[in-house]
Amino acid sequence: MKNNKIVKAVCMLLVLTAFALMAIGSGSDDGGASKVGEVTDEKGNAVTDENGEKVTVKLPEKVTESTQTEFSVGETLITKSLKVIYLSSGVFESDNEFIQPAEGKQYVYIRLYCENIGSSDESVNVFEFECYADGYSCEACYSMDEELSASLSAGRNTVGTVCFEVPVGAEKIEFEYKPNLFGDTKYVFRYEGVKDGGITPPAVSGETEGAFRVGDIVETKKERISFLSCGEYTSDNMFIQPKEGCRFVYFEFEFENVSDSDTSVSTIDFHCYANGSACESHYFDEDMLSGTLSPGRKAKGCVYFEVPVAATVIEAEYEENLFTSKKVVFRYSD
Questions:
Q1: Helix, strand or coil for residue 268?
Q2: What angle (nearest 5°) sits at the alpha carbon of residue 147, between those of residues 146 and 153?
Q3: Residue-level pLDDT at 58
Q4: What DSSP character marks residue 19?
Q5: CA distances from 112 to 72, 76, 86, 142, 266 (A)
Q6: What stretches of the chain show up as alpha helix (H) in DSSP?
Q7: Pairing relation of β-strands 70-71 and 187-190?
Q8: 3-state secondary structure of 182
Q9: pLDDT at 184
Q10: Nearest CA to 138 among 183, 101, 113, 112?
Q11: What mean pLDDT value characterizes the chain?
């Protein structure tokens, strides 16, 4: 599992710049409730349906952003594009003899629910947090299984923890969150010892209308994508096993480059959601989807995820275009 965490961290660092560029583009997103707006073509003309009626879509309205900047367990932060609920705080005790706090220190964490309430992609991860104990900077700990890290499409959510090493006798511990790399706004989550806010994260189905199923073929501007199969994956590596209450699943695809220029496909182009909540990617060596394709060339392979056993709706999203956040959604079935 440790190797998977290293690979995940490397992949995350590779796409942080891309996420930052996306944040610039989505910075004006107002998120939240919705209103109706007209759909127009490239020339600005209203699009009509077969009955001559104007086609409309739901557009985001302005949300009421949080005016407070400091939060206790049980409180909710609302930004232009994210709802962040402070679920709990506590002490993390590692069962790995090689991952232990220094003498006189301990690992403490906060656990957060993050939901994308905007209309474009957002990301949340532990690298957006700093921790201070009695005013002094603390070192991050990246050893908890439920580590906060996710790319969230509109309406998707995740639950995760942020963990730091702090002095045992520290009186004031604060987690600083900076959601925008290029902004100055910071929010503080006060560490309150072992405390649970008693909040159950909102339940959502996560079901996407029109999601593609096994046997379907989808054609984008550059690729023809064949959804070949999906199913449960069993690892024969004793050190790489799903967490309790979870299982590994795979989606198998064939990609064909139907454009007149090179294109590439990789597992990092995919994200998975179970009942609307982000799932962890895994990078097994066998049949992993990856390739740079000349025009007319093909690649076949699998993408792997760890999902809750009880999940009723599992979907893999393929990011067709990084800069427009356009997605193709594939539904998992046993």
A1: helix
A2: 95
A3: 46
A4: H
A5: 11, 10, 5, 16, 29
A6: 2-26
A7: parallel
A8: coil
A9: 84
A10: 101
A11: 85
